[in-house]
Each structure stands twice: as C-alpha cells, then as structure tokens.
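Sanity check record (used in CI):
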Amino acid sequence: MFVRKKIDYYPITVIILIFAIDLLVFFLSPSWILTLLWGLISIYIKGFTCSLNHHHQHYKFFSVKWANRGIEFIMGLQTGVVGELWVLHHTLGHHQNYLDRRKDESGWQKDNGEIMSVVEYTLYVGTTTYAKGLKVGERYPREQKRLIQNIVLTLVAIAFLVWYNWYNALVVFVLPMLILLYATVFDTYKHHAGLDTEDPYRATYNIIDPTYNWFTCNLGYHTAHHLQCGKHWAELPALHEQIKDKIPQNLYREPGFPFPQITRLTSLLRNLGAMLEV
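Expected output for Fatty acid desaturase:
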C-alpha cells in the first residue's frame, strides 16, 4: 500500500491542507492584514503538525521514499523541524539516552544536578537541536547526509519565498517555523522533567485525555511510546492498557487549555443526547 496504515490518511490530509492554505495565502493574499491573521492562526494549528511530524519519523506514513521525503519537506516548512532531525536528535538520541540525564539530547538537568526551568530548557535545547542532531549523525552517516540535504533544500526554498515576497514569507513560513521549533521543545519539557530514574515506567509523564490524544495522535501515551517507539501511534492506547498498572498515579497529568474543556463539553453533550433518547 502507498500509505502504510489507512488511519494515516487523517494526519496526511491535515498536513497537506494546511500547506495548501499556506501557499494560497502566500501567493494570493490581497492584504498584509489577511496574511498576518493567517500567520497568527496557523501557528496554533501547525502546533499539531509538530506531533504528526514526530509520529512520522518513528513510523513513516508512506511505503515509498520519495513520498516520505516530500511530506517531510512540507512538515519542515510548517514546524521548523526538517526531515531526519527527529530521527537523529529524538529517536537515535533522546530515546536511547532519556534514562541518563548526562547523555540525553533533551536533557532537563544542569551539570550540578538542578532541574532547569522550562524557559532555560526551551532556550537551550531549542538552540542546540540542529547541532546535536548533526552530532548524533556522526554515528549514523546516512541519516546525517539526509539531514544536511533537508536543511539545504529547506533553506533554498525559504530563500526563494523571501525573494518572491519577503513579508508573506516571514509571516507565513519563517516566523511560524522559528516559533514552533521552540514551542515543540517547550512542550517536551513536561514529558520527563524532574524524573531522575532508570525505571522506564517512572521516567515519563502521561496524558490520557481523549481530546488531547485525538489532536496529537496519542502523544499522551508517552510511557508506552518510549517502551516501543517503533510502534504506530494508533497502537499506543492498547499498549498503554497492558502496562498502565506499572505506571505510578502521580505520573498522569492533565493537558492544558482547551483540551479538558472540550472533553467535558463533549461528555456533557453525549449525556444530554442519551437523556433525550430516553
């Protein structure tokens, strides 16, 4: 099959639709205000692409290389994280080292053992992400070569967009890429910060809110993901059910606004619907 899992038509459609709107606004926007409005709105929307980008790097959407490289290029222009960076920095870096804070590419601990603040962590990890990805790539030359190719291709594309229309390029592509690179790092802080342990069942926080996991494709089942990072995102809830008794209750967290509110509203509407049927 061209798409390896049918359920991945959902994230693929989202990614392509957002990119299509980006291009429409970039080339056809009649005013700078409309461009700015979409740029601001898109930052929030593209935040969900960050999790889709993450999942794709663990389990590719397509069965053919050119399609995977193509959608990685698109997601790079949406999130600031180009293809193969997740593989090197995250899968071959963080996932191998998250139980050792001294080696972890996304380490939240200072050299003296203190926990970084979320701001310090975001600035440090975000600023060093590409350098560390390339460093990990020294052990994986093929992936490092792909990362370098993707960086160059993305920079060339951005240069063309800036040449064509610098304002639209800045608002639609450049600023969202920069912001979301750091926003992605900011969001990862809550996955592990403060959990200094070698026990994988105690090294990760989890979010089981259904709305959050619908929008992020089950990113909240983070312990399950770390235990089997090559497992497809749709299979994580089942794996979580198998291991949930091993996860301490204090390692379950609520998501931020607006996910709990949407979940409660959905539950209320469902209960009202059941009452009306009766």
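The chain has a mean pLDDT of 94. If this sentence no longer matches the regenerated tokens, the check is flagged for review.
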